[in-house]
Amino acid sequence: MSIAWYLTLSALIFGMGAGGVLVRRNPIVILFCLELMLNAANLALIGFSRMWGNGDGQIFALIVVVVAACEVTVGLGLIVAMHRRRLPVDVDEMRELSG
Amino acid sequence: MSATTAAWLVLAAPLAGTIVTGALFRRLPGRSAGWLGTGAVAVSFVFALIALAKLQQATPSHRELTSTLWTIAGSVGVDARATILVDPLSVLMICVVSGVSMLIHLYSVSYLQGDRGYSRFFAYLNFFVFSMLLLVLAGNFVLLIVGWAFVGAASYMLISFWYRRTTATSAGIKAFVINVLGDIGLVLGTFFIFRHTHTFDMLASFRAAPHVFAHGSGDVTAGCLLLLVGAFAKSAQIPLHTWLPDAMEGPTPVSALIHAATMVTAGVYLIARMHPLFQLAPAAGDVGAIIGCLTLLIAGTIGLAATDLKRVIAYSTMSQIGYMIMGVSVGAYTAGLFHLMTHAFFKALLFMAAGSLISAMGGTQSLDRMSGFRRALPFTFGCFIIGGLALSGVPPLSGYFSKDSILLFVAGRGGWHWALWGAGYLGAFLTALYTFRMIFRAFLGDPCPEAAELIEHGHLFHPQAPTNPANGEIEDTDVGFPGPDHVVAERAWPMRAAMGTLALLAIVGGIVAIPKSTSWLDHFLAPTFADSTLVGHASNTVLVIGLILGAVVSLGGIATAYYVWVLRPGLATSIRARFAAPATLFENKWYFDELIDTLVVRPGAWFGRFAQNSFERVFVNGALIGGSTGLVRAGSALVRASQSGLLRVYAGLMLLGVAGVALYFLLQS
């Protein structure tokens, strides 16, 4: 199976993730979409790893998974805190940092 | 010890006194600061005498010594060095300055007693003496300017010594501003000389001057006229004299110091010191002589109308300095310096006696309130009489010989100088008249309450509340005001010692240069003024006429004063009513204050307001500052608009950016 298939799938997933980040307003969904983008990148990394026949890409993918886990922890923690303070859980409402 | 080492030590002693008294002013108990200051100046005086003795031992051609301590700046043709010049002229000056200053310090030990600023006063006083000694010893134009400016600064500090009196601080500011005007004249004049002689060293300048300047050329005349501006401001000559009467706001010993030993004589010294230049610029000398002559007449007429005791003496100083300036401007250097010396003695004496009288009056200085102190203050009365006789030029006191030797030289120059000669004797008559008007009004007649208290109860008058004699405001006796024990009169021995010594000097001081009999001063100063080309050829007839006229005029002035103010008490009032116009002119000091106010102060203030309203507000604040801040503000508003706070917009922009970069690299490869 050629590398092109892997990369096409990865690009599709990445596009879905990026589109989701741009159009959705719920922070939980945005986090999911971020996960999609990260894992699309993982897929590409593993595909390349297979193509070259060494394990570097897989190691990278594992590190990305760890980073993603940390990111989700922090992100979900923030969302829970917002919910507890009864703030609207909507990224468009959170714009106090406008200039 | 060589003469130059002694001269350096003359400078070092009062400087050390200033530093020690200034640094330890909180820790010096009682009158120790006063004794410390007096001791420092006494050491200075001793070294001045040593320098004099060493100079006398040298042969007359080797009496011009210089000594350089270090180079202040020495590159690109500038040779500013810390050089002192020790020659008969500067040694005469340091002897007079340190000697008279020492007596004034001694007087102040008692006079300032009880003042909260006692140590500060002596630190300033020592600094003043140091500055003046630096001025007269300087052998380099740069050092001269430094000393010149220091004297102005020291006078400012001392005139506004009682700094919580508004009248005193404004008088100090006035003195300082006018003195700075003189400093500018001196600096610019020095520049004119330096441009041609290419050296700041005085002796080298004087040697080069005849070769680089044509006789009476424009540059040397301009330089000398600018030096004269400096001399006029320091020596209170018309029209830069208005600070001197106001300087009476300072404590009385300060007045004595400014008028007798330091400060006002600096202008006379400057002209005498720069005589090789002035001889190349006869026009500048003529200007000096005419201004000096005008000053001596105008100051005399104002002194006749003034009612403040210290101001009468102040105007007499102006008038006497007028004689000196006139003398040194026409070339009577020895006579001018002779008068400087005798004037230092009798003027310091008069001010000390005035201080004693004022403290007996509890601070009041108005002649209208004083009378009958003859029995109350016999010692002060004696000092006043001796000082007054010497000032009026009654033979054989010191002022008689010195004034007449100036006028003799003036007559010897011939031509239009005879007018100056006549004006000089008219001024002498005025001097005798206003001096004895002051003395008769203060000491003769029925005792005023203050004098009566002193005669009957034997204790000094103490005012209910301390007041400012200038405007009658009630004051307290805290720091910045005269202290509570300001009432000492002639009781304290240091004051009596200082006054007694000066009285003796005022009587016998003339002995150093009696015309045709003693000529010690002429011989002593001869090496300095050997190159003088201005000589007065006065015949013996003129000399005898002058001496007789001087005696007649001074005694006539005293007799007139006695007739007007003692024998016919109402006569002064009727004369004043008869000649109302000149009397008003004299009482208002010839309107010089108003004239300067109209010509200089008001236009200056108007221009300042105009500049503030137009230039400052419109151009600086509006265009420069407003323009730049507006630019920054507009730029930041533009950038701020992109900070929407919308997370999704940021994410989209980031994606677009990354996609753009990726596309760029794809197309490149």
Structure keywords:
heterodimer, A: 99 residues, mainly alpha, Helix Hairpins, 3 helices, B: 669 residues, 2 domains, two-stranded antiparallel sheet, 26 helices, 2 strands, 3% strand
Task: Provide the fold topology.
The complex is a heterodimer of chains A (99) and B (669).
Chain A lengths: L2 H21 L3 H26 L3 H29 L15
Helix pairs in contact in A: 1-2, 2-3
Chain B lengths: L2 H21 L8 H26 L7 E11 L2 E9 L1 H24 L6 H20 L3 H19 L6 H32 L4 H11 L5 H17 L8 H4 L5 H10 L3 H9 L1 H4 L3 H24 L3 H22 L2 H28 L17 H15 L5 H16 L3 H27 L5 H9 L35 H16 L11 H6 L14 H28 L3 H8 L1 H8 L4 H50 L5 H22 L1
Helix pairs in contact in B: 1-2, 1-4, 2-3, 2-4, 3-4, 3-10, 3-15, 3-20, 4-5, 5-6, 6-7, 6-8, 8-11, 8-13, 10-15, 11-14, 11-15, 13-14, 13-18, 13-24, 14-15, 14-17, 14-18, 15-16, 15-17, 15-20, 16-18, 16-20, 17-18, 17-22, 18-22
Task: Characterise the protein shown here.
The complex is a heterodimer of chains A (99) and B (669). With 99 residues, chain A is an all-alpha fold. Chain A has a single domain (3-84), classed as Helix Hairpins (Orthogonal Bundle). Helix content of chain A is 77%, strand content 0%. The radius of gyration of chain A is 17 Å and the shape is elongated. In chain B, strand 1 (65-75) and strand 2 (78-86) form a beta hairpin. Chain B has 669 residues and is an all-alpha fold. The termini of chain B are far apart. Chain B has a two-stranded antiparallel ribbon with strand order 1-2. Chain B folds into 2 domains: 3-587, no CATH class; 593-668, no CATH class. Chain B is built from 26 helices and 2 strands. The mean pLDDT of chain B is 86. Chain B has helices spanning 3-23, 32-57, 88-111, 118-137, 141-159, 166-197, 202-212, 218-234, 243-246, 252-261, 265-273, 275-278, 282-305, 309-330, 333-360, 378-392, 398-413, 417-443, 449-457, 493-508, 520-525, 540-567, 571-578, 580-587, 592-641, 647-668; strands spanning 65-75, 78-86. Chains A and B meet through helix 1 of A and helix 25 and helix 26 of B.
